[in-house]
From TrEMBL:
Residue span(s) of domain Fibronectin type-III: 271-380
Protein's recorded name: Proto-oncogene tyrosine-protein kinase ros
Organism: Lasius niger
Source organism phylogeny: Eukaryota, Metazoa, Ecdysozoa, Arthropoda, Hexapoda
Gene3D superfamilies: Immunoglobulins
PROSITE patterns xrefs: FN3 (PS50853)
Superkingdom of this protein's organism: Eukaryota
Molecular function terms, GO-annotated: kinase activity
Amino acid sequence: MELTSDKQYIIMQSDFDGKNMKPFLKNEDNKCFCQDKLLDSTSILHFDTTNIDKPLIYWTSKDRLIAADIYGCGCNLILSAGNQIKFNNLIIDKTNIYLYSVVEELIYILNKEYALLENKGDAFKYVQKIYLPFYGTQLTLDKTLQPYPPTICLTPNMKDYHVEKVLITANSIVVSLPEPVPNDGCEKYNLATTIYTISVSYLTCLDNSLNKLEEFKERTYKRTYKIQNLAPFTEYTLKLAVSNFYVDKLSMGLQYDTGVKLTTISGKLNAPEDVMVRVLTPTVAIVYWTPPKKLNCVAVNYIVNWIQLANNTETQEATVSEHVDNPERTLDGKFFKIIRSLLPGQKYYIFVSVYPTNNIQHFYKFTTDSLTKIVYMEPNNLIFSWVSTDSMNISLISSVNLMIHTGFGYTLEYKNHVMREWQIVNITKVNNNKITFYIKNLLPRTLYKFRLILKYRKHINESVLPDKKEFTIGTLGKEMKAL
């Protein structure tokens, strides 16, 4: 009931969900209206739905009882008790109308057969009066006057509902949801607000070739709904269950349809994660990464990129990319790729890209880059320190951090032109990150070649330095033998 600006009351009707709102006592053309019997601030109103086909409205106006149909076209003064009487309460059951006067402490009881719209005479002569001095605000009524529809009409028909596609993008699906259907013999307005529950499921591919079904649920009251945060190139199964407040109240449970399969379109994938770079040797590094979390069963390829930076600047000097179709895996499941032929003593930006395999011709449109890692390759220079006629010292500067974290190992070997096998230098001294090799019992005035064998715990292959130019030193003395 709504109070208008001119102090009049307007009675509205609607479905249980608040839709299809229409005013009572007022039809569409405004021709039928109880102009002289409007509600006022002291009125008490009651709807009589005993006859659902012809519902009536009863209300009091001080000492009077008025009846009308819901459009106000049938409007009748049922009884008038006199100006000295005021009705303080109005209650209706299946048979009677009860009016209570506080001043008189009387209940006026009128059989509804004398209170119909067709009755034009004063019904006061049919009224029974009962003295009830301690009456409060309630009366015990017949339970047959249940204001709700039958239970079966409170819940929708549990038929096979399904969603309809409206719009599909790379990361979302917009669907249209059906209007619920009432059960046989029930009206649409008997239904409460509809609750739509959408079950969204998809397959996640595992390493053991077994697919894992993932599922989540969306809940909405709207007829159009957008399912968000989806992955591109992925098939989703959408199952719909229609319910309302009474379905939950009656513990009926949700009934889903068989489902509709919809696939998101092409789009950029999420970036590779947990990228880590480990320097193995001054010229070799290894890159680790894990696949994007929302990859699902999309077939993808990876690209490992490394960008060389100019010394002492951030200027890019060279960029190299290598496609990795079938990356190797570590024991804990991470992908890895070994990068070779890097330059010692150089700074690199390294990152991993991912793109869908089925878009190889236009992969650049869908490629997604990971975060960039910055690494510095260790220098590999051997340093000539001291020489005599039969001995010499050679040094190597290596990163302490590299030695600790990669299990750095080293062997210096040498030979001259007459030696068939490389000889190992057995005398070394380590001072912080400086390694000094002491070579004894050499021939005077003889040229010797040197090579450094580097071994790292995390790298299965050895690295031989120098890798591009010879490192040759001659001893002092009278005779110099050519190599």
